[in-house]
């Protein structure tokens, strides 16, 4: 499975590298690597990664937008488009549902399926008016 997903330095909820008790960096494996990569893509403003200007998303641009059908559709299109860019995601398996959109911010649930995996992966994305974005696993440890 690592041939498909690779490995990466494991990050905590704040984006900091996780370190074992012996001082070594912890690594992700399998679908944990893919999920972490998707979270990073969604949370990184598009074009800010100096070595890959195509990495990231424009989700932060919706933070103060009005709650309209066209803006909801635009937000979900951006989410699913960015998830679809991951070559480990089954094309067409991506989905996005708006859970709430008000003066506090936007809350969505997104899902997708990885190749060679039978279950769906889920995240909740919260974009607050303070520009803070929180992306959490719905089913951690699956």
Brief rundown of the structure:
With 142 residues, the chain is of the alpha+beta class. Helix content is 23%, strand content 23%.
Tell me what the structure shows.
With 142 residues, this protein is an alpha+beta fold. It has one domain (2-137): Nuclear Transport Factor 2, Chain: A (Roll), CATH 3.10.450. It has helices spanning 2-5, 31-43, 69-84, and strands at 8-9, 27-28, 95-102, 105-112, 121-128, 133-137. The strands form two sheets. It has a four-stranded antiparallel sheet, with helices on one face. It has a two-stranded antiparallel sheet with strand order 1-2. The chain is globular and about 50 Å long. The mean pLDDT is 90.
Number of H- or I-type helical stretches: 3
Order of strands, widest sheet: 3-4-5-6
How far apart lie the N and C ends?
A: 15 Å
Number of domains: 1
Helix proportion range: 10-25%
Q: Can you tell me the residue ranges where pLDDT is under 50 for at least 5 consecutive residues?
A: none
């Amino acid at each position: 499975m690592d041939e498909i997903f690779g490995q990466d330095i494991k990050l905590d909820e704040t984006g900091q590298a996780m370190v074992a008790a012996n001082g070594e960096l912890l690594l992700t494996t399998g679908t944990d690597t893919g999920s972490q990569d998707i979270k990073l893509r969604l949370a990184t403003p598009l074009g800010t990664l100096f070595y890959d200007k195509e990495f990231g998303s424009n989700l932060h641009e919706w933070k103060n937008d009005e709650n309209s059908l066209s803006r909801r559709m635009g937000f979900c299109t951006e989410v699913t488009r960015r998830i679809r860019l991951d070559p480990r995601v089954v094309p067409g398996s991506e989905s996005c549902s708006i859970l709430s959109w008000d003066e506090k911010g936007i809350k969505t649930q997104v899902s997708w399926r990885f190749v060679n995996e039978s279950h769906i992966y889920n995240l909740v994305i919260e974009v607050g008016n303070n520009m803070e974005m929180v992306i959490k696993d719905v089913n951690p440890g699956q």
